[in-house]
């Protein structure tokens, strides 16, 4: 019940295309869903996050879509660029827990 | 310049030796975390601390130990009891129970190789 399942493991997208990464969870007590971006040899950096009271959040080219009934959320990267090539992690946390549960990660490659 | 520092960036040890990884933050955060990252397995929580002089085991605490004597520092010791210590170790911090944000900020990581 504490797991967050992320797919796909790897993804190749052409420059200018839309990259979509999906995550699913079981624990309905989760109330915070962030996405992190990690470049090789670096620590992850927070990209965007959503709470379950909204179905979508957009920041620039990055959008989180949240489906509470399906217990799924996804990251959409519009107009994908080679600089977006990185590993992306979804995560979830529940109120008061002060811990994040991470998905397994998706290695995204944007071909020029 | 606020942030989290981890040192060293690369660390090499012989099997059977204990090794301590450093993590310092100047963000005035109450909570600090240690994660281990292996290829294809995401980030797994080793230990976390919500306040000075207190810490809790995460999902994979066996073979590791921590201390939290100062708010700014949360060192991790990889003991000889850890069966597969070679990995990328990440330290993180968050504002903690005092705030409503769950955002965690990560350091640059330490890559430990044990041979």
Question: Could you characterize the architecture of this molecule?
Answer:
The complex is a heterodimer of chains A (112) and B (115). With 112 residues, chain A is mainly beta. Chain A has strands at 4-7, 10-14, 19-25, 30-38, 45-50, 56-59, 62-67, 72-77, 86-94, 101-102, 106-111. In chain A, the strands form two sheets. In chain A, strands 2, 4, 5, 9, 10 and 11 form a six-stranded mixed sheet that branches. Chain A has a five-stranded antiparallel sheet with strand order 1-3-8-7-6, with no helix packed on it. In chain A, a hairpin with a 6-residue loop joins strand 9 and strand 10 (101-102). The N and C termini of chain A lie far apart (39 Å). The mean pLDDT of chain A is 93. Chain B is mostly beta strands. Chain B contains no helices and eleven strands. In chain B, strands 2, 4, 5, 6, 9, 10 and 11 form a seven-stranded mixed sheet that branches. Chain B has a four-stranded antiparallel sheet with strand order 1-3-8-7, with no helix packed on it. In chain B, strand 5 and strand 6 (54-57) form a beta hairpin. Chain B is globular and about 40 Å long. The N and C termini of chain B lie far apart (36 Å). Classes of the chains: A mainly beta (112), B mainly beta (115). Chain A binds chain B through residues 6, 9, 32, 34, 36, 41-46, 49, 89, 93, 96, 98-100, 102-105, and chain B through 4, 31, 33, 40-45, 48, 50, 58, 90, 92, 94, 96-97, 102-109, 111.
In terms of structural class, how would the helical and strand content of chain A be classed?
Answer: mainly beta
Looking at how many chains there are and whether they match, the oligomeric state comes to heterodimer
Shape descriptor of chain A: globular
Distance between the termini of chain B: 36 Å
- Average the pLDDT over all residues of chain A and give the rounded result: 93
Considering residues with a beta carbon less than 8 A from a beta carbon on another chain, report the largest interface and each chain's count. A-B, 22 and 26 residues
Order of helices and strands of chain A: EEEEEEEEEEE
How many distinct helices of chain A? 0
Q: Low-confidence stretches of chain B at least 5 residues in length (pLDDT < 50)?
A: none
Helix coverage percent of residues of chain A? under 10%
The overall pLDDT of chain B, averaged over residues, is 91
Class by alpha and beta content of chain B: mainly beta
Number of strands of chain A: 11
Termini separation of chain A comes to 39 Å
What integer value in Å does the Rg of chain B equal? 13 Å
Largest sheet of chain A: 6 strands, mixed
What percentage of the residues of chain B does DSSP assign to strands (E)?
over 45%
């Amino acid at each position: 019940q504490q797991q967050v399942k992320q797919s796909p493991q790897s993804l190749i997208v052409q420059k200018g295309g839309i990259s979509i990464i999906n995550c699913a969870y079981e624990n309905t007590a989760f109330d915070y869903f962030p996405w992190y971006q990690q470049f090789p040899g670096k620590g992850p950096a927070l990209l965007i996050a959503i709470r379950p009271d909204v179905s979508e959040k957009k920041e620039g080219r990055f959008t989180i879509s949240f489906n509470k009934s399906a217990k799924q959320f996804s990251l959409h990267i519009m107009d994908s660029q080679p600089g977006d090539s990185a590993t992306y992690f979804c995560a979830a946390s529940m109120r008061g827990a002060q811990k994040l549960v991470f998905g397994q990660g998706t290695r995204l490659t944007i071909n020029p | 310049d606020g942030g989290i520092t981890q040192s060293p960036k690369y660390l090499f040890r012989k099997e059977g030796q204990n090794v301590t990884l450093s993590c310092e933050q100047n963000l005035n955060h109450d909570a600090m975390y240690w994660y281990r990252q292996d290829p294809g397995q995401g980030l797994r929580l080793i230990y976390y601390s919500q306040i000075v002089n207190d810490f809790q085991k995460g999902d994979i605490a066996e073979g590791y130990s921590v201390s939290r004597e100062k708010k700014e520092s949360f060192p991790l010791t990889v003991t000889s009891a850890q069966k597969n210590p070679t990995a990328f170790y990440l330290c993180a911090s968050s504002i903690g129970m005092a705030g409503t944000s769950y955002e965690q900020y990560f350091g640059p990581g330490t890559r430990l190789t044990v041979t």
